[in-house]
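Researcher: Re-running this chain for the archive, since the previous output was lost when a drive failed. Same request as before.
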Amino acid sequence: MDTTNFKDIFKSSILEKTSSFSIVDSLIGLLVAFAVGLFIYFVYKKTFTGVIYSHTFNISLIIMSMATALIIIGISSNVLLSLGMVGALSIVRFRTPIKDPMDIVYIFWAIVAGILCGAGFIPLAIIGSILIGLVLIIFINRITVENPYLLVVRYNETSIENSLEHVISGHAKKHSLKSKSVMPGNDFEVTYEIRVKENNMSFINNISSMEGVKSAIMLSYDGNFTA
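Model: Regenerated structure tokens:
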């Protein structure tokens, strides 16, 4: 027959779990995760090429690294807790849309760095983050990629199509017709993908001044539409 004494009543399982992990190792993991997250913050700020820079998103990368490291530190010493954490996180759904594919790269980078710091692979997290940061800085800031433009022309006379094609071919290194639409009111709209010569877009003024052309719009296309 089991008996319960006075000490068993006031026995705390929390204190037992507290002694099962090292506070020093946890602090080191969190501090390194913060340092790596801060490095990711500066790399993202230096390599950002979008339209609107989001400071809050950049701050969230630091918190993401530290929070991931905190989770890994917590579950690394308890198998049952790790299984429960996986089940709890599997029901979480993030609905925030990611417009720039590079943002997903930075999110994944912050999560991986947090996992490595929490698991104790601190040298791997530091060396890997430095190499990733150098690759991003070199390829984004040093290597220029010529993005195509989308030219949208709206007109009401089909007789100008040959003249329009002649003007575009004379000022573009490469162009292709992407779509042609018939609008209400017997208007027509064509979309060209073009690569201009030496960034010279003055020919759009010639197109706008053509008789029968209602509007001519040039859009820079790099995965997002930017007027």
